[in-house]
Fold these 2 entries.
Entry 1:
Amino acid sequence: MTKSELIAQLAERFPQLVAKDADYAVKMILDAMVDALARGDRIEIRGFGSFALNYRPPRVGRNPKSGDKVLVPEKYVPHFKAGKELRERVDLGES
């Protein structure tokens, strides 16, 4: 599902919500989540899952084209862990 499909489905489920307002709501939620992760905060949505940052230490990698060693710097990568309720619903194939 793409962001535009999510917006369309939200507007369809809630007829009182204009598509423009649904678009704004989705963008605001995603912006708030990105801002929280950029600050290093953890996001927890009960029944759905949690978003956090995982630390990747610096390491020596290889350039696949030349085979030369390359220093890969440390970084933080976003990580999503599905909640129990989401895992169970996906396992049962529920929508």
Entry 2:
Amino acid sequence: MLACLCGLAAGCSRSDRPALGKVAGTVSLDGKPLAAAIVVFTPELPGRSSLATTDTAGHYELVYLRDLAGAAVGRHAVRITTANEENGGKELLPGRYNASSTLSADVKAGANTFDFELTSR
């Protein structure tokens, strides 16, 4: 995960950036907002991942580069994790949402909303 965050700071020139779509949504676990979860969209085609951290209401907005919102247009594998330094790296979600994720999203140009309703079972 740290490699993803470091990659966000590196930057790209405008000429080598893909077309982007703005991506936002909410993440819930068992019907309740999931705060402090990391949401990662990884394009199927080679390219940079976009990520976000959910707020206390479970809302997220993806960032492609430090000061550039969105994700590359196209199909993405989606991973959601709660493992972070603050909780000692403990994952609270089943593997089907992160390490062995079955989640995906198709990002279009313009505004996109993807809500993820996760279950602990």
